[in-house]
Amino acid sequence: MHVSGLFPILLIVSISCAGAQVQPVAGSSRSNSTPAVEVFGGFAGAAGGPISSSYGFNGGADFRLSQRFLLVGDVRYFRDPPQTENKMSEILFTGGPRYQVPLSHSSRTSVFGEFLVGGEIFRNSGQAYTYSYNSTTNLALEANGGLNYDLSRHLALRFEGGYLYNGLTNSTYSGPVTPAKFNCNRVDFIADLVYRF
């Protein structure tokens, strides 16, 4: 009778001890529960360069290497406004590291910086006498920064801007093309919706 009376007390004590052991594990695994892969897509715009003001779309994926470092793969498509004589479009594909830091431990907002390397495919399909630049494929370098705002664990908004360096081939309006390489610098800006797995 005495032993059977202690049984419920021992059971309650053992359950509460087990619950106390589980709680710290759940708290400490919060950082490990951060999604490892992000996919994103949205609007991209540019100012400067061969297309003085252009627009298009952006898409890609991020792979988390650690809590603050990510590996980024990014693809962008731009085109010139329809009214321009040069019928230009470009595809930009880059990749590289991103360093990301939350503003505070409980903040929904994080800021980041990234350096990306890749290439650019530039196409000009206008009439020959309107050419300013030849179709070409070149090295592209980017230095970007921005912020993420978490809407939920899986959804976020991303706003990003940065500097793009590439090279284009200048063209004459008539006669044989006389290539002249020159640096093309411009500012890009992006607004993406991010989904985290």
Provide a brief overview of the structure.
The protein is mainly β. 14% of the residues lie in helices and 58% in strands.
Layout: helices, strands, pairs:
Blueprint: H1 2-28, E1 37-48, E2 53-64, E3 69-79, E4 88-102, E5 109-124, E6 136-150, E7 155-170, E8 180-196
Antiparallel strand pairs: 1-2, 1-8, 2-3, 3-4, 4-5, 5-6, 6-7, 7-8
Protein architecture, described:
The structure is a single chain. The chain has 1 helix and 8 strands; from the N terminus they run αββββββββ. The chain has 2 domains: 1-33; 36-196, Porin (Beta Barrel). The model is unreliable at 6-32 (pLDDT under 50). The protein has 197 residues and is mainly beta. β2 (53-64) and β3 form a beta hairpin. Strands 1-2-3-4-5-6-7-8 form an 8-stranded antiparallel beta barrel. The termini are far apart. The longest helix is centred in the first third of the chain and has 27 residues, at 2-28. The chain has one helix spanning 2-28, and strands spanning 37-48, 53-64, 69-79, 88-102, 109-124, 136-150, 155-170, 180-196.
